[in-house]
Amino acid sequence: MKKETLSLEHEKKLSELLKNIDVALSEFSFANLYLFRDKHDYKLINDNESLFLSGITYDGKTFVMPLSDLSDDDNTDYFDKLLKLSVDYDMIYPIPEKWINKFSADNFIVSYTDDDSDYLYEIDNLAFYPGRKLHGKRNLVSQFLRNYKVEILPLNSENKHLAAEILDKWQNEVGEDKKRTDFIPCAEALQNIKELNQTGQIFLIDGTPRGFVMGEKYGTKYCVIHFAKADSAIKGLYQYMFSIFAQSNKERECSFINLEQDLGKEGLRAMKKSYYPTSMLVKYRISMK
Questions:
Q1: Where in the chain is the domain with CATH 3.40.630.30?
Q2: What pLDDT, in 10s, does the model give residues 169-196?
Q3: Could you give the CA distance from residue 115 to residue 117 in angstroms, rounded to a whole number?
Q4: Fewest 10 Å CB contacts: which of 68, 84, 138, 187?
């Protein structure tokens, strides 16, 4: 059995595996795994050509993560290997709802924590903010467009230095140590934007870069926003950025946008709930009885 630290060299192979699994959880995006590899101590496990990932959750639990579709009835050999591996870890994680029937209540303990759960939105709800519940977001976008002259640039290798400037300003405004924010993984995502297949937009106001949003398409119908940074003093900018990102990815046949988890941070939780998620994606924790 071979075990190695997750690296960019694994991108091609793992991205193809994750795409075929087609799970909405944000961990099933290679970029998410790679950018947070240090926080979770991710290691790739190769057991006779069967691949798994090991890691540590934010609350300190060790886990093994499957990298094959457990809903495939012909995948019994892989499932057996997963169970054997799991005895060396606290749990199997993250397990989506559609795989939960593989773990009977007679043999397994199934649990989850709300802090882990991803926020999933129908793409039209972020693209256009329809209906009464979202009219406040829609009004903020309208006010923003009335008050500011905005120019949108693609976020790519040529323009990523502008996003890096915005990120630096955002970090200075936050006033925390870089290790306590997502500054380091965001900067690394910008540095490797092409290798990690990241796309997005940069927003200039009166010619000055003031915000950017970055993410990707994964699976067959999901998009994820990994990072969004902007001048919080500009009312409506974040709402406008989410809308533009959603509209651009609707054209790429995405049906849902994942805003990832809130880590139990009340500010993040309130913000993500204010956009009225279509569903919360529970990440189940499985342990042996």
A1: 118-260
A2: 999 999 889 989 999 999 999 999 999 9
A3: 6
A4: 84
